[in-house]
Amino acid sequence: MPVVLIFLVLLALPTTADAEKVRACYPAIAGNIAPLWLAKEEGFFTKQGLEVELAYIRGGTTAVAAMLSGEVAFCMIAGAAVIQSRLSGSDLVLVAGVTNTFDFTVFGAKGITSIEHLKGKKAGINRFGSSSDFAMRYLLEKHGLKPGQDVVILQVGGTIERVTALEAGAVQATLVNPPMTLVARKKGFIELADLGKLGIEYQHVGLVASERYLQNNRDQARRFIRPFMEAIRFYRNRKDATLQATKKYLMVQEAELLEETYEKYLNLIPKKPYPTLRGIEFILKEIARNDSRARGADAKIFVDVSFVKELDEPGFLDR
């Protein structure tokens, strides 16, 4: 290639000085955040002229507050947190659905071999109103048990804390995410149900932004969402690189734990990341038990699928 042409090509590439700065967050260190990590690590954002800073902001409530303050433009948040925020008057919307079903496996203490055996026992969740709460209540009711009456539900904390509570005998069942599913099996706990295999539509985790930001920064938003969706495809086709990024952000060294995480989400992260309206309706139904604002709410007001459609309709996602 002639020297002049090489020089012109280099001029056309975005430099760090020219790149637009965008801040994005994630409130949990979990395998389904991998597309966000990959888009950063593989340089997909950089190719779109963006300098993206990823921030770990622990807890969905704190992450929502950061978005509403304008501190971050995008965040990967549980659908329930977005819906509850929107019902309270915020303008947050899901622009992509990354995990559109539950990713939990329910484990029981030794001697508990079925969900029905939990009658009169205690079950551990993260906190009331969380995805783990909805999942546990759904499963108990599906098996004819009344949450809070037949089974006491306790707020225990994150996955590690829940496994610890199960081991200590504080609860007799709990929900576990990868890679702790492998740890739970090795400790001898009994797998009672894999909710990811039940085909339940539930808006577990999605990419979220405020309507105000999307309206005022549509081109920038498009250049963020496109590489994010490229990273989803990359996740499905480039296992080794995905495991390296997951290893860095999950801070997990053991190969078998990384494999456990990858294989689980390979089956759960959709090729076309549309949010699930039926999954949002599921959450609204649960919230409506205690919050009248959720009754009759239209699931469509919680999403903006225009960005995914822009890439899907020309066939980009299929290619």
Q: Could you walk me through the main structural features you see in this protein, from its secondary elements to its overall organization?
A:
The structure is a single chain. This protein is of the alpha/beta class and 319 residues long. It has two domains: 19-101 and 202-312, 3-Layer(aba) Sandwich (D-Maltodextrin-Binding Protein, domain 2), CATH 3.40.190.10; 105-197, D-Maltodextrin-Binding Protein, domain 2, CATH 3.40.190.10. The protein is built from 14 helices and ten strands. It has helices at residues 3-12, 34-41, 44-47, 60-68, 79-87, 131-142, 159-168, 180-186, 211-216, 218-237, 239-250, 255-266, 277-287, 306-312; strands at 20-26, 50-56, 74-78, 92-99, 105-108, 122-125, 152-155, 173-176, 190-194, 205-210. Helix 6 (131-142) links the parallel strand 6 (122-125) and strand 7. The chain is globular, with a radius of gyration of 21 Å. The protein starts with a helix and ends in a 7-residue tail after the last helix. Mean pLDDT is 90; it is low at 1-14.
Can you give me a brief rundown of this structure?
The protein is an alpha/beta fold and 319 residues long. It contains 14 helices and 10 strands.
Record the SSE blueprint.
Layout: H1 3-12, E1 20-26, H2 34-41, H3 44-47, E2 50-56, H4 60-68, E3 74-78, H5 79-87, E4 92-99, E5 105-108, E6 122-125, H6 131-142, E7 152-155, H7 159-168, E8 173-176, H8 180-186, E9 190-194, E10 205-210, H9 211-216, H10 218-237, H11 239-250, H12 255-266, H13 277-287, H14 306-312
Parallel strand pairs: 1-2, 1-3, 6-7, 6-8
Antiparallel strand pairs: 3-10, 4-10, 5-8, 5-9
